[in-house]
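Friendly challenge for the regulars: who can give me the structure tokens for this chain first? No prize, just bragging rights.
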Amino acid sequence: MLARLVLPVILTVALIIVGLWGYDQYQQNMEYRNYMENLYQKSFYELVGQIGDIETKLSKLMVSGDQGQSMIILSDVWRQADAAQINLGQLPLGHLALIRTSKFINQLADYCYYLTKKTGQAQMLSVQEMNNIGELYNNCARLNGELRVLVDSINSGGVKWGELRQAKVKAELNEDSENVIVRQFTKIERTGIDYPTLIYDGPFSETLLQRRDIRIKGEAVDQRQAQDIAAAFVGRDRVAEIKNGPQTTADIETWGVYIRTKDGEGSIFVSVSKRGGKVINMISDEKVNDSKISLDEAQRKAEKFLAEKGYDSMVPTYSQRFDGTLVINYVYKQDDIIVYPDMIKVKVSLEDGDIIGFDARNYHIAHRKRNIEQPELSLSEARKLVNPRLKVKSEAMAVIPTESGGEKLCYEFKGEYAGDDFIVYLDANNGKEVNILKIIRDENGSLAI
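First reply, four minutes later:
Bragging rights claimed.
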């Protein structure tokens, strides 16, 4: 009798233990799958970014006329291609599936390594070598188009890389496959990849962040004075309530001020420098429901706003449209010289033209009246040093920031090559190539990469 009672209990306990063990195994398996999926996603998007960066650098190389700059670009391409090859090998695709793409990336890395050594030995690239670079660029561009399709398909279709691993795709890819990754990689085997990394803040933004040595001068202001300055900046007639916000102690120490507006269109946060009482930035959480005004009208609104706030001689450089808003980068112009370190960003609502964002951090760190001496090189002399492949459309003189936190006077040549827009900067005193920017234009504005 006792045995008949104990046996079911033992079986029940055993089933519970087995069930718990099975659930634990299931959880571990799911964790492993998620880990592998994340690894595949990371490898894939890094690969896409690397190939995109290679394509951009190759296009810059074709308009470079400076041997030192060419060596730097070639070295960057070589390292990016090596990293891309590693990420390609981590994807759950068979060797035969990617043999041509792998071969192309390997050859690209090897060739750029060879050219890096050649330019490092003070040897010029030959016409044939430049033609080879052009062909590599064309292959990357074709690869870019196909990968854009794949990125969009993966993002919209929810396809998982783990499905390929589970299906054990170890042989050649099948163009008739139902899996979008399999289909697209079949096409990619015949072409290439692209997902360029864009610098949304315009040229030199990363270099501007290196400036840590300049502090705003002027009298100290307290929190109450900061509130008064913020209210005046926003418009006193708009202020319904004003409160203290968080302080900052970074390169520019600021008081924070919260403002609730009478129109009920959201609150505004304003940062005011503790010394000098300058408005460093202003952010509104006003919602933008629809785009009703043109980009040209939005730019006129931004320029009127800057003039009213006392920022004279500011010229627009680059802009981008995001979710019903337009962000415009303005830089200072001293006489006829563009001064890129003195930058202000203005964000305009495309619904009603309201200014809903303002960032003058770089301007207040760098701005001053500069004593710019006459350059040793004339404009006509500098023009002769520009690569003849670049069809120059405009030229100017500009002050640009350097990686060390300094500044350099340059000649700025804007031009076109093979349907793409570029800006080449030559040192105004020795003619050396300092930087090359590629300009990307679309319906949302313009970007520099």
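The chain is about 45% helix and 25% strand. The longest strand covers residues 337-349. Your move, everyone else.
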